[in-house]
Hints:
The chain is 94% helix and 0% strand. By secondary structure, it is an all-alpha fold. It is rod-shaped, with a radius of gyration of 24 Å.
Amino acid sequence: xxxxxxxxxxxxxxxxxxxxxxxxxxxxxxxxxxxxxxxxxxxxxxxxxxxxxxxxxxxxxxxxxxxxxxxxxxxxxxxxxxxxxxxxxxxxxxxxxxxxxxxxxxxxx
Length: 109
């Protein structure tokens, strides 16, 4: 059986892990948004500079496919981020309960 201190340490480590995962997910979302904007801007620049309809049509199709993928990835990351936030809240509540239990045990002794 683990001591309360060990459990508390594990909970804190799990909370740090969740916070890091949330931060990584948010960074990934920002990066995806930036790449999407860059892709749109590149497509617009190409259209203005080349004037070749066929090349632009292909580029638009590729960008639309990329955009769909990014939107799906963004949605998945947002769902994962929400789950991680829920996990963090749950772990934080458990940490509070453990602290209370430790305090209670100290008071009994």
